[in-house]
Amino acid sequence: MAQLIIVRHGQSVWNLENRFTGMTDVDLTPLGREEAKQAGILLKPYNFEIAFTSVLRRAIETLNIILRECDKIRIPVFGSPALNERHYGDLQGLNKKQTELKYGEQQFLLWRRSYDVAPPHGESLKDTRNRVVPYYQKEIESKLKAGKNILISAHGNSLRALMMYMENISPEEIPNITLATGVPRVYEFDQDMKVLKVFNL
Ligand SMILES: O=C(O)[C@@H](CO)OP(=O)(O)O
Questions:
Q1: Nearest residue CA, atom 7 of ligand 1?
Q2: Which of 26, 3, 2, 50 minimizes the C-alpha distance to 181?
Q3: CATH number for 71
Q4: Which of 69, 114, 150, 187 has the smallest number of CB atoms closer than 10 Å to its CB?
Q5: pLDDT tens, 16-52?
Q6: Which residues cross the membrane (predicted)?
Q7: Could you list the residue range(s) of the whole structural domain that residue 37 is in?
């Protein structure tokens, strides 16, 4: 019975400044590095053998801190832009509170949490799902089926897209679901890749 663990990177500089980040390649904050370390401590008893990450530094750094903490720096690591955060388009860099005040709560929530409304020049969650899930099916699911335990370090929205697929979450439900930074979420599958158990550490 294979295990998949997903973890959203620790707090980033723009999480702290409350700015839309998307594909902007910002660093972790000191708290973000501490969150990654705590995730590593929680993950020590877990026997993952392969890791995947986006190619954004906040996810890579989070993964590296976890691997060091778990004494697993030699396991194979695969990086892909398919796991990158949703592109937030023209919103990237803007302060979230100011954006909400300028455009109103309804428009703000449509851009931020709806399934299929994309911000100008950006991706909707559906667009993100359309790149994350095929990558997952091709590169990750096959390894899980072969019995490998896997860790993925990625982002709030790229992982929400993946959660929709794995947990059968509908477009109507997904606006209410978020993932905290640095909190590992564990999936256990049966042979047919049906989720048997899912829990946060
Ligand atoms: O700014 C972002 O890229 C994401 C994740 O931090 O934000 P949100 O929670 O608004 O989707």
A1: 20
A2: 26
A3: 3.40.50.1240
A4: 114
A5: 999 999 999 999 999 999 999 999 999 999 999 999 9
A6: none
A7: 3-200
